[in-house]
Amino acid sequence: MQLPPGCTTLNPRAISSLRHLSYQVRVFSVATLTFKVNLNRSINQDHTLFLFYLGFSLFKPCYYPTHIQCWTDWFDRDDPTGSGDWELLSLLRAQNPGKICPNPVDIEARTLSGLTPAAAGDVIYKSDTSTGFICKNQDQKDKKMCSDYRVRFSCHPPFCGLGVCWTKWYDRDDPSGSGDWELLTHLRKENPGQICDNPLYIEATTTDTLTPALSTGDVFHTLNPTEGLVCRMIDQKSGKCRDYRVRFGCPCCD
Fold it and tell me: Domain map of the chain by residue range?
């Protein structure tokens, strides 16, 4: 089970009564320790704590940040031989138990070389969070086969991929002109070496009240960890965007 930064858990997959409960601890270095708990006099066993935060403090409640867009690991169960590439959610769940949330909020598909379906020129039969991804060879032009795809799903923590380490906050644009453009490509150019190659999360808040972006009522043209944030004036009922800052969650091994 993967956790948001700073959080630890008492193995909630194994203990249903603790499914939404975890603890936060800050230590001087990342470490692993084991301790014994006795809950409701019915559970008495060792559980491993994974500690992901630097510093120090006492234990305190920690809740998963549901406003953060988080992505699972990439999955590639099929190749385009036969009738096509079938990355069905039901089969991915069966082959990867516990790694995909019950109700994904988004799906992303890329070829193994990193192209979007549109860039690859493929006709996609289905790509949604209830079925998964299907590319049929019979739908392609000039009798060509589908490209080989991998998919990932957007979930709330703790159904994320690797352990996550956060970048600093970035605010490169103001909502003047056409809107607020916090594009990852621009941020990388202006902050060389500070953002990993493959961010897993994006978190965005307003710069004044620190309100989560998804709670502001603004309509976002782009808001994902591979492209960044774009809020366009033209998309808003009020004709204005708030001023946003963003940060990215990167694999801690990067």
Answer: 8-61, 69-155, 164-251
What distance in Å separates the CA atoms of residue 91 and residue 236, rounded to the nearest whole number? Answer: 39
CA 82 to chain CA centroid, Å, is: 32
Give me the pLDDT at residue 155, please.
Answer: 83
Is pTM beyond 0.90? Reply is no
The pLDDT of residue 198 is 84
Q: Which of 86, 99, 112, 240 is nearest to 176 (CA)?
A: 240
CA distance 75 to 89: 10
Q: In sequence order, what E strands does the chain have?
A: 8-9, 22-24, 32-39, 43-50, 60-61, 69-71, 84-88, 106-111, 126-128, 132-136, 149-155, 164-166, 179-183, 201-206, 222-224, 228-232, 244-251
pLDDT at position 171:
96
Q: How far apart, in whole angstroms, are the C-alpha atoms of residue 179 and residue 231?
A: 6
Both tokens assigned to 75: 């999955």
* CA dist 24 → 12, 48, 50, 63, 100 (Å): 14, 13, 10, 9, 24
- Residue 60 confidence (pLDDT): 34
Which parts of the chain register pLDDT below 50? 1-64, 254
Other Cβ atoms within 10 Å of 172 Cβ, number: 16
| Residue pointed to by tokens 């006709």 | 123
Please state, in angstroms and rounded to a whole number, the distance separating the CA atoms of residues 195 and 231.
21
Cα distances (angstroms) measured from residue 189 to each of 140, 192, 193, 222: 37, 6, 9, 19
Q: Sign of dihedral through CA atoms 86, 90, 96, 102? A: positive
